[in-house]
Design a protein that fits this description.
2 copies of one chain form a homodimer. By secondary structure, chain A is α/β, with parallel strands linked by helices. Helices cover 52% and strands 11% of the residues of chain A. The first copy, chain A, has one domain: Rossmann fold, CATH 3.40.50. The first copy, chain A, has 11 helices and 6 strands. Chain A is globular, with a radius of gyration of 17 Å.
Chain lengths: 209, 209
């Protein structure tokens, strides 16, 4: 293995070429392609090529929300940190994570729920279009489903990519049947970097040349 | 797929049981076991069972550094965010990421290098024991190797887990031959969540019952 001499600015383009090469004969849906490739770029894991599932029209609905100056809510500060701030500023959008908020901790303690659940309750009170990106807590997805079923929330998009071994697969299936636009990584895999990568792919669609 | 009714506090323990079950007959080295399991827990990716490589004594040297109140330097704010602050406080350690610092941006621009390289130069000037955790930039690892070879830096541990397709495999191999303690994810995989998970596994070894 030798070093490839390349300018830092060209590394992402070259990476995407390598991913494209290795996809070989696999044809990705045009609307999903750059999102799937960015997730592979972020993980070096081609499993996401078959794991990522999009509800019909999900990408278009997400782009409409981003163009309207929406709020992206995450379930971890890591995912929030990973979302492009310059991109959000260009669009007049913002990102928030309520997990470390004192009021969320207090509600979770009082109700005997997780902070992830309480932070979704707080997200339901936001004004305007909301994209929810869940990279960690299946309980966040389960709570979102309850809020949707109760008519208390109608996210423009749910990015459902928590990672793990307990209730993660179930929580993702629950969101795929919630009747709202979704991008979900079926199975156990996902994480904060995956949630951020999907947000960034959507943002870059609107902000990069 | 049905829901598993479990208290939030028990989810991590149950996840580790599932990972243990699925490892089957694979025997992990006792000193590495909890680190490997935490990375699998963070990624749901059993590839790390064979990808993670430890230099002899790496874990012991890292624990010595953590007991001495070391600094953990990361190459992304995401990884830095993911490292347990309560755990660090118990140990009298701290975490830093220089990537967003104005002086690092200025040096990188002036020298035509990446901010990751310039942030490693800044790390080389730190007092006391340093653990460097690289989850993103292969150029950070290549710069570390140069600093080590020049006698300008002697990290207590390098966590070398950048993810990607360009120079990532090469940079990891370079670190495995640098003559310093390392934990490396061989191959393309890794990321900020993996870097943070390895840090946390080491921290928890010393701070959890």
């Amino acid at each position: 293995m030798k070093i490839e001499h390349i300018l830092p600015a060209d590394i992402e383009r070259r990476s995407m070429e390598i991913i494209e090469d290795e996809l070989g004969d696999i044809i990705l849906p045009p609307d999903e392609k750059d999102i799937i490739k960015r997730v592979v770029h972020t993980s070096a894991d081609f499993d996401y090529v078959r794991n990522l599932r999009f509800s019909p029209g999900a990408v278009e609905q997400a782009l409409t929300a981003l163009k309207s100056g929406c709020t992206i809510v995450t379930d971890t500060n890591m995912a929030c940190m990973g979302i492009s701030q310059p991109g959000l500023e260009k669009l007049g959008c913002r990102k928030v994570c309520f997990m470390a908020d004192a009021d969320v901790a207090a509600v979770a303690k009082a109700q005997g729920t997780t902070r992830a659940q309480a932070s979704m309750d707080k997200a339901a009170a936001l004004e305007g279009a909301v994209i929810v990106a869940v990279g960690n807590a299946p309980t966040a997805l389960l709570r979102l489903r309850e809020l949707i079923d109760a008519g208390k929330m109608k996210p423009a998009l749910i990015i459902g990519v928590p990672v793990g071994f307990v209730n993660v697969v179930y929580a993702k299936e629950t969101i795929m049947e919630a009747g709202v636009p979704y991008i979900v990584a079926k199975g156990r895999k996902g994480g904060s970097t995956i949630a951020a990568a999907i947000c960034n792919a959507l943002i870059y669609r609107l902000t990069r040349g």
